[in-house]
Here is the input.
Amino acid sequence: MKTLHLTLKKKWFDMTESGEKPEEYRELKDYWGSRLCYKVPVPWGGYMSKWAKLKEGDFDCLNDDFIPNFEPFDAVQATNGYGKTAPSWKRECLGIEIREGRPEWGAEPGKKYFVIKLGKVIPLLLLTLFLFSCVSSKPVPPKHVSPKIKSDVWK
Here is the structure.
């Protein structure tokens, strides 16, 4: 499963986790273009094999005949922060497109973005293992649980 990893600010993390915001925005910059696109058509015909240094204005000619081919991500995993214990979620990736975003979801009006469309929640491996261990004869606590909680709860 090919997964796109994103780090989000708390406000956007909470909105996407709850399903209120079903898409995530990334600016039309080289950084994101090189990660999201694998074959980009050029206005003069043909394709570039990878993202090149295009500017946002180069996308003004976007139409049905001029659309980049995006990496086929199966899932998007987002974290709120950078630590090992940072909250995270994983959702299906329903595709990527270039268009304007919604201002109430953090986009600037009239500006085009890479729009990453999010689908259903995919259970994270730790949660899946934890739930599986709870139905077994002897539950096994996750490694990140403090010793005090382990002694009180996991007897």
